[in-house]
Amino acid sequence: MALEKHRNILDYTLQALLRRKFKNIGIILVFTFVIFMLSSILFLSYSLRQEAHLILQDSPEIVVQKMRAGRHELIPINLEKDIRKIPGVSSTEPRYWGYYYDSGAKANYTILGIGTAILKNNRLLNGRMPLPHEKNVAAIGRGIADVRIIKKDIGSTLYLQAADGRWMNFNIIGIFESDSEIITSDLIIISEDDFKILNNMPEGMATDLIVHVSNETEIPTVAKKVKEQFPDSRPILRDEIIRTYDAVFGWRSGLIITLFTGALIAFIILAWDKATGLSAEEKQEIGILKAIGWETSDVLEMKFWEGLVISLTSFISGLILAYVHIFFLGASLFAPALKGWSVIYPDFKLTPFIDFYQIATLTAITIVPYIASTIIPSWKASITDPDTVMRG
Amino acid sequence: MIRTENVTKYFNRGNPDEVIAINDVSIEIKKGDFTVLKGPSGSGKTTLLSLIGCMSRPTSGKVIVENRDVSRLPERFMTEVRRNTFGFIFQQFHLIKGITVSDNVMLPLYPTGIKPSKLRKRAEEILINLGMGSRKDFPVQKLSGGEQQRTAIARALINNPDIILADEPTAHLDTHLSEEFLSIMRNLQQEGKTIVVATHDPLVYEKDCVNLIVEMRDGMVKDIIKKN
Amino acid sequence: MILHPGVISLIIGSGIVLLLVMFASALGIKITRGWDIKSSSEEQLSFERKTYLISTLVQYALSFEILSIFLFIYTAEDIHTLLVGAMCATGSLNANSFGFPTLYVKVVAFFVSAAWIAINHLDNKAQDYPLIKIKYRLLIAVLAILIIEFILQLQYFLRINPNVITSCCGVMFSEKGKGLVSSLTAAPILPAEILFYSLLGIMIANGIAVHKTQKKSFTYLFSIFSFIFFIASVIAIISFISLYFYQLPTHHCPFDILQKEYYYAGYPLYAALFTGSFFGMMIGIIEPFKKIASMTPIILQAQRRWALYAIIGLIVFALIASAPMILLPFKLY
């Protein structure tokens, strides 16, 4: 019985809203836009963060870099022997990597020289990886293939300028088709030997060393010991990287949302105004309803449904638009503000990532203020005297 | 059935534009009466009708409906009494445009939680009785004046009220339609319903079925004529 | 201070709700001062109309409070990665001394605003507004709690320092630590289970008695038991119910059951517990109103109905809590 009552009032509200579509379309459009912007920000920052987590999951527990005058420098490989002696360390490996600036495409690529290590997720690879000492072959990300290679396929050639100015050519033997393009999109993988030639690296040196620790809880202890034995080294913990990523993404999206509160306030004023400015026709309708047997709380309920229908319509359409914007159109509107802070990435697609928490957050910053701004106007409308219709 | 005891109603009390709309009115209407509240505009008959119909509260005095003092009830109980006891017919019909005839008729009972299917069946029965069966799915703005009047009557009957209140019901109708309206009211009276009409149309108050005329002027009762 | 979307939404939301309830309380004070049920002045009429506005405002505030409890736990969960040593929501809440108090006050705010709405609902059923003064005095209490909540929450977020090492559920809810919570988790499981289920049995018996007779002694007793049962259930969740959900003999976190990994089982679990305990506690709280003539039949009816809601809530809670013990192969002894 009680349920039927709410259903009846909701039915009537929907009918009334449809009768006055044009009155509400403006507010729905503006609200949709506000929600679209806010959820785009949130989706983008969360997916970037999530991508970072995905990458870092498989990354080594500790990376040891050598520092000189506060700057990162090449590290001698023979440190490995001493580090392996620290209790708790299960294995170590040298890494060869760097950036390559492509003046033609105006983009920065990440270049990785592989010795023994092979990326685990090679199911993403179309083709194969270079072998440790194989010459003049490369596996590259889809992003680079699209920018640089005319045929965009395996078998083409990639030209890179070495440190001494000579051009080196690489036969493409593999292309990454990753779900999570942010890792592989700008990646070039070549053999360790080629990497050394390309970058003119001295023998016995590596970019950094990775240290695997089998027991999670011992990571800080191992890091401390590395730092004690080699005061000029910088051990970087995986947790620290995750923390930094999270802080940066959280902070950036928070900042943009804060800037956005201005727009939100403007919207609330609009909503207030719209809710207060009842048309004569609507006023009369409420008068009629009250005269023929509706009570104040019934009219309030009708107004509640009205607000809910308007906000849910806008919420869902804003969310869908934002989803398309971020995950299909590559966040074209404001990607520059959020993702690039040290590297200019070529195009990439994000893995969709949405959860309850993001929805709840969005609800709290959009629907709650909207509903709040309509309470008092709705109440004012609902206390219309039932006998107004008789007084003409 | 309905009794008012020294009912007075002010508007804008205490303000410079204070108006006394009803002044010390005591009347009694019995079950089955066809009552006319007669008087020129501004005489207070509409205000009296809204007080009787639990639409507003008197400033002083008592309104007693079916042995219950309704003059001091909180709004939600006033509405309940109104919804259970009265059917209203307004001067300008006051139908809601854009929805169909049967939706308009069902409207008063939406908040009571009756199943829509049951409610619709009841609305259609009433519409058929009033000869409006073929018009039930018409949008109200496409109806003729007489059809709008009958839709308004159907809406007043949806809650099966004991008392029907009508405010200047014939003001916008020609003689033929007014007669039609009165014959519907007479039928309702014969079914045992109490009818109260506020009007200054002689066509109404000169009818035989009217058995109580309350003549009003300047917010006061000038004369009460009982007929049999 | 962390500039985080969840933090911003909590602060904006709580701020709005605080403003709404402040406005409602101001109206409430005005109404109690000028209230005269016998008067038919325009002022009295406008007071009666304002009661609708106040109840609407409080209803919206309550809905936000419910959302805000989960949002707060989720935000704590989400920011744990920013804090060294925090591995889940518990760790984040321990980052400073305002975390857990904020959560507790949120729960209290939920109960008190729900109680307000329940009392308002009863008051609306009588024709002479018998509870109007009590109701608006209680509203001031709601406002006070919301102010405390807002301040604690703000302090918590302002003082979060991403570099402080915090303990996390691995530490706080493990048996090695000291303090009250740790001693709870260390309690032997079998006696704790026996205690929990016997308490549940007493509750149900008492609830049936209230449903049948609404005697004063039963209703007061039921209220007290409901309160004890609520606390006991939270302890039970930490001490043994969570273990069965996680299928780990050492993981005592009360928040992780809200996660997708555990099929969001925490939502119906806590919803049933909160509803059951709320109606249980309300039964005794409304007992004194029985003395008011116009309220007597209304209170009797409410107690009968609410006792039923309380029993249903508690049984649903117990069923969800017991499901993994019965259905899953994991055993603690």
Describe this structure as you would to a colleague.
The complex is a heterotrimer of chains A (392), B (228) and C (333). Chain A has two domains: 2-54 and 244-391, no CATH class; 75-206, no CATH class. In chain A, α10 runs antiparallel to α12 (356-382). Chain A is of the alpha+beta class and 392 residues long. The relative contact order of chain A is 0.19. Mean pLDDT of chain A is 80; it is low at 340-347. Chain A is built from 13 helices and 13 strands. Chain B is α/β, with parallel strands linked by helices and 228 residues long. Chain B contains seven helices and ten strands. In chain B, the strands form two sheets. Chain B has a six-stranded mixed sheet with strand order 6-7-8-3-9-10, with helices on both faces. In chain B, strands 2-1-4-5 form a four-stranded antiparallel sheet, covered by helices on one side. Chain C has two domains: 5-167; 173-327, no CATH class. Chain C has helices at 5-34, 42-79, 89-93, 99-125, 132-158, 169-172, 180-186, 189-213, 216-246, 266-285, 296-327. In chain C, α7 packs across α9 (216-246). Chain C is flat. Chains B and C meet through α2 of B and α2 of C.
Low-confidence region ranges of chain C: 167-171, 174-178
Strand content of chain B: 25-35%
> Based on helices, strands and strand pairing, what is the structural class of chain C?
mainly alpha
Q: What is the distance, rounded to the nearest whole angstrom, between the alpha carbons of the first and last residues of chain C?
A: 45 Å
Helical percent range of chain B? 25-40%
Radius of gyration of chain B: 17 Å
The biggest beta sheet of chain B is recorded as: 6 strands, mixed
Any guess at the CATH architecture of chain B?
3-Layer(aba) Sandwich
Q: Enumerate how many helices of chain C there are, as a single number.
A: 11
Oligomer: heterotrimer
Q: State mean pLDDT of chain B (0 to 100 scale).
A: 91
Assign a percent range to the helix content of chain C. over 70%
Major beta sheet, strand line-up of chain B = 6-7-8-3-9-10
Biggest chain-to-chain interface with counts = A-C, 38 and 36 residues
CATH T-level fold name of chain B: Rossmann fold
| The CATH H-level homologous superfamily of chain B | P-loop containing nucleotide triphosphate hydrolases
- Rg from Cα of chain C: 22 Å
How big a fraction of the residues of chain C is strand? under 5%
Kindly give the count of domains of chain C.
Answer: 2
